[in-house]
Amino acid sequence: MSKTTANTVLITGASEGIGLEIARQAIAGGAQTLLVARDRRKLEAAAANLPGAHRPEVAVVDLADAAALETFIEELDRRGFVPDLLVNNAGQGASGAYADEAWPKLDAMLRLNMLALARLTHWGAARMKAAGRGAIVNLSAAVATRPTPYFAAYAASKAFVTNLSVALDKELRPYGVTVSAIHPPAVKTSFADPVKANLRSTLVLKLFPAVSAATVARSVLRAGQSGRRSIMVGPIAAVIMASAPVMPRFLDLAFMSLLFKGRRSAAAANRA
């Protein structure tokens, strides 16, 4: 990878998947990194195995815990730490019929995907605006542009991420700060596993090819350099997002239901 223009990069959700790949590429580009995740064992093992001259710093934080997040931010401020690039990558997924999902799982996902991202974005935006430079890259998703039955809360959380990012970019660009939203389709990580988003039985993974974590990571770091407001990762994401405004809503809902109503959702419906 060519040298990144970001000297310091803060990456959340960095113990695996997209976040870990962003860290790998940022370090290869010469950046100093601060990696954040909630699982100490996985985070420290991942950091120890990253190649490069610059050893990453790690911070174990459950970002869905508001008190823990505030403590983390206070420590960053105490140190005077302001990254050149803030990457809000941490996120969770939940699929299936909304009413059948356990509320604690949905609550944790919404806190992480929206509230934690919004809080870190607010922190980064204020510090970067005062410094007159910086970039924030928020991980959204291709489904952010359309209501998605059986993936409803996740898609809605990503719509929040996209709208927040695009609006803040307009506010902050005059002060030398850019905000970008990244929209990947399905990604080749453990996100779709049954213990996570539980998408393995859905048609969306059978019909549409997933992109690699490395591909998404390159898009993230390029967005940090270019300041592009909205990035669609690959042709599948481009088709999903471009077709949303023109497809009649009743067809759109039927199509997205077909893609995301996996076996678990069907079984729950049969029990009802």
Question: Uncertain runs with pLDDT below 50, 5 residues or more?
Answer: 265-272
Helix content: 40-55%
Radius of gyration: 18 Å
Strand order of the largest sheet: 3-2-1-4-5-6-7
- At the first level of CATH, the class is Alpha Beta
CATH topology: Rossmann fold
Q: What's the mean pLDDT score?
A: 89
Tell me the series of helices and strands, N- to C-terminal. Answer: EHEHEHEHEHEHHEHHH
Please outline the major beta sheet: 7 strands, parallel
Oligomer: single chain
Distance between the termini: 52 Å
Strand content: 5-15%
The 3D shape can be described as globular
Number of domains: 1
- Number of contiguous helices: 10
**Counted beta strands:** 7
Tell me what the CATH architecture is. Answer: 3-Layer(aba) Sandwich
CATH superfamily: NAD(P)-binding Rossmann-like Domain
